[in-house]
């Protein structure tokens, strides 16, 4: 048996993993056109990028914005909630899913995840629905589709719109359908680490005419331009306008995202195949007929294993494979002290103390036990489109070696 690197043995991997640039000549060419035009404010490039993104998803409307967080804020504004309305979402996500709910004076409610996909559990979603529920935000964690048939069935039963947070899931599919096109609204982050990027940026897609119009005004200060007479701000909005510079990069990225996500899917699925028989760990489950695009690769250590996620990730790092434990560490609502204290705006308890608000909402440990258990046992590995088969073989070798080595201790 090979000695673990953490015990002084030879690491599985000594040469660095390949990396690469996400941007190049195609982006430069587009950017040059913008600079030569002299206009960086939203114009022809933003329009072209929106149209291209909408076409790629077959959606009627596409609203561009400045971040994934903004794209979700657009989605929330589209459904036009009243202050104190509740929006149900998933507890394993970036805070960017939650900020828009709070800024729109709504109350975030968390449905637990199910242990197979690590995404929203439709049964718990249904338990969390009240007469105050205005929308559902589903997160496709790491690029892995949530169980959309079950979630959409609950949503339809209660007549509640579904917003899909596809920040980590560009071009992922659920039973052959692109995520982002299954619910009423799809949101995407274009931040640097994402499958396609403009540095920072966001896109929101929908087929609904009212949502499309509201979203378009919302990102432009609520301004209905082009009307005669005094300016007309027909709703409260933000300035979330994408610039021509971002859109120029985005147009070039449209031509790359399919290949990026295909390669990531190939690499992630290969890794799953190679480690599926390793004792003591379980990989994130993919629903049959769906395509995971692996923004990150995740697995859990078994609850009855004689090692923890921390021990596993420390040993695996020593084998030359960079990894981490616990992802965000705790359910997202416990990561935001203002939410825990329900003291968000100044020293008020707004919106929790609004007369129409439900008074028994709390953000405490134990609220989402499956989420806590999965995060506690989660190990994540960054895999990318730049890795070749031999790199994945090394990662698999390292995982197997560590699982077997720690089990012997
Ligand atoms: C699931 C999820 N939602 C929302 C966001 C927010 O996106 P951004 O950082 O572009 O604002 C992120 C960013 O990492 C994310 O991963």
Which keywords apply here?
alpha/beta; 7-stranded mixed beta sheet; 13 helices; 35% helix; globular
Question: Mind explaining what this structure looks like?
Answer:
Helix 4 (99-103) links the parallel strand 2 (86-89) and strand 3. This protein is α/β, with parallel strands linked by helices. It has helices spanning 25-37, 44-57, 68-79, 99-103, 122-128, 148-158, 209-218, 244-254, 257-275, 309-318, 337-340, 369-377, 389-408, and strands spanning 61-65, 86-89, 107-110, 133-139, 162-165, 173-174, 177-178, 185-189, 202-206, 281-283, 297-301, 323-325, 378-381. It contains 13 helices and 13 strands. The longest helix has 20 residues, at 389-408. The chain has a domain at 25-256: Aspartate Aminotransferase, domain 2, CATH 3.40.640.10. It is 35% helix and 13% strand. The strands form 3 sheets. A 7-stranded mixed beta sheet has the order 1-9-8-5-4-2-3, with helices on both faces. Residues 67-69, 93-94, 96-97, 139, 165, 167-168, 189, 191, 200, 202 line the site of pyridoxal-5'-phosphate.
């Amino acid at each position: 048996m090979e000695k673990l690197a953490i015990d002084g043995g030879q690491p599985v991997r000594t040469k660095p993993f390949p990396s690469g640039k996400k941007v190049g000549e195609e982006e430069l060419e587009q950017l040059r056109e913008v600079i030569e035009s002299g206009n960086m404010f939203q114009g022809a490039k933003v329009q072209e990028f929106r149209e291209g993104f909408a076409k790629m998803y077959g959606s009627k409307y596409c609203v561009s914005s400045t971040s994934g967080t903004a794209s979700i804020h657009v989605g929330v504004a589209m459904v036009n909630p009243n202050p104190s309305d509740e929006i149900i979402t998933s507890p394993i996500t970036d805070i960017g899913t939650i900020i828009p709910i709070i800024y729109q004076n709504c109350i975030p409610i968390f449905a637990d995840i199910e242990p197979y996909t690590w995404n929203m559990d439709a049964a718990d979603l249904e338990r969390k629905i009240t007469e105050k529920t205005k929308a559902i935000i589903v997160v496709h964690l790491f690029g892995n589709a949530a169980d959309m048939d079950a979630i959409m069935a609950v949503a339809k039963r209660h007549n509640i719109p579904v917003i899909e947070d596809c920040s980590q899931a560009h071009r992922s599919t659920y039973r052959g359908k692109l995520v982002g096109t299954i619910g009423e609204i799809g949101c995407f982050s274009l931040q640097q680490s994402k499958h396609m990027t403009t540095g920072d940026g966001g896109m929101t897609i929908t087929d609904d005419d009212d949502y499309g119009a509201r979203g378009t005004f919302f990102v432009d200060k609520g301004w209905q331009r082009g009307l005669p007479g005094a300016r007309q701000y027909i709703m409260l909005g933000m300035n979330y306008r994408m610039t021509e510079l971002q859109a120029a990069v985005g147009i070039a990225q449209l031509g790359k995202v399919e290949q990026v996500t295909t390669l990531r899917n190939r690499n992630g699925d290969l890794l799953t195949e190679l480690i599926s028989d390793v004792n003591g760990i379980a990989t994130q489950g993919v629903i049959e007929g769906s395509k995971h695009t692996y923004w990150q690769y995740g697995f859990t250590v078994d609850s009855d294993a004689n090692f923890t996620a921390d021990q596993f990730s420390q040993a695996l790092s020593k084998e030359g494979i960079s990894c981490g434990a616990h992802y965000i560490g705790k359910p997202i609502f416990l990561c935001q002290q203002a939410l825990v204290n329900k003291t968000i705006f100044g020293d008020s308890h707004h919106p929790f103390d609004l007369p129409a608000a439900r008074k028994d909402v709390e953000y405490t440990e134990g609220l989402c036990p499956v989420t806590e258990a999965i995060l506690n046992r989660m190990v994540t590995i960054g895999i990318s489109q730049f890795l070749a088969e031999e790199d994945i073989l090394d990662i698999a070798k390292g995982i197997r070696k560590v699982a077997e080595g720690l089990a012997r201790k």
